Every structure is written in C-alpha cells, then in structure tokens.
Amino acid sequence: MKITLKTLQGKQLPMEIEADSTIEALKAAIAAEHDMPAESQNLVAYGKVLADGAKSVTDYGIKDGDFIVVMVKKAKPAAKPKPAPVVEQPKPAEPVPVEQPSGSGGANVEPAQVQPANPNPQPVQPAQPEFQAKKEDVDTLMTITGKDAELCAKALEAAFGDPDRAFSYITDGIPQNLAQPSPAA
Fold first, then answer.
1. 2-72 maps to which CATH number?
2. What residues in the chain have per-residue pLDDT under 50?
3. What is the pTM of this model?
4. Domain ranges within the chain, ordered by starting residue
C-alpha cells in the first residue's frame, strides 16, 4: 500500500509499505529510506500517536493513500547543574558627615547615619520573553494531535514556536518551568 509521510516542516515523502507491517517495522523502514532514527520518531495518524508493538498499520485504520505525520524528537541535552541563586546583600550605608554649627562651642557632634532605602531587596526574576503562537501552527497541531486549541497554543508558546517540541509537550506534558500561569479572572 502507498502512504504519504508528512513532516512538520511541510515535507511530503511517499512510501510503499505492506498492510500488515507493524509500527516498529514501519519506523525501521522510514529510518532506512529517509534518514530519521527509528528511536526518535513519533508517528501520528488520525490524531493518535502510533505506539510501538504488535499492532499493524491496518489495526490503526490506515488505508492506501492515507498520510502519517512523522515527528522526529530532538535529543535532549544532558542536564546542567543549576547555578546557585544569587542573593544580593545590602551594602552598608556610608555615613554622611554633618557640618557642625559654628555656635556649638567646639562640642563634639556625631555625624548622622544614613539608612538604606530598602534594607531587604528581593532578587529579580529573569523575565521570559513572551511568544504568541500563530493560528496556522495551532491549527496544524490540532489536526495532528486531535487536541483542543488552548492546549496546542500553550504547548507552542512554551516551545517558542518549535512544532516538534510543542508536539512533545502535548504528549509528555509542558515542563513546570515553562508553563505560563493563566491570567487571573
């Protein structure tokens, strides 16, 4: 049977497969023909992720002439140790000398002490740049995943527009450090 592989970059790759091919065999064939490592492929048809295992392409309802979306997961970089948070210590205020009045008769007058304006400054959180998901990208993810527009838009925004990463966020969840809080009602 002839199918078409579609990538999120817009490429359409024709492919000839057997109707009883398993998903693992399909991934191996894609890896051999199109230089996409089988272990990093996510295959999606009819809004469902095709899981590795004994199921064949016909078990998923794929017919001659259908298309399958191929998403290649990028290798995750090794975890970097987090740097220790920088806490700014308030600098002690330097005393400002006060002029002694001429009529003091030579009495010792101590200089006035200046207090800092904010003795406990709060560390500044780095601002994450905001990213607005494009409607056509949201629509594409909705078509591929079968998920609602809000989830697709949040995933795209967290992925800064990278559709492969957004798909990964939809299937695996958006990391907490990238999830933006919902605006207060």
1. 3.10.20.90
2. 182-185
3. 0.51
4. 2-72, 135-172
